[in-house]
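Lab notebook, bench 4. The sequencing result for the construct came back, and we need a structural model before the next group meeting so we can plan mutations. Quick request posted to the team channel:

Model the 3D structure of this chain.
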Amino acid sequence: MEEYENLKKILESCAEDIAKAQGGNKMAGTRVRKAMQDVRATAQIIRKKILEMRTQAP
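Done. Here's the predicted structure in token form:
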């Protein structure tokens, strides 16, 4: 599923910023929060597709 791969990329891309944010870098924290919004939106898309697959199953 393409959306799942996108979700993994989003999480992998913010790993460095999470470490920077823990060190006190405010801009890194902003980037992490934006990435988490992207995670939320992508997860919602995946959830809808899973439900669609379930309703289409015989």
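The chain has one domain: 2-52.
Will bring this to the meeting.
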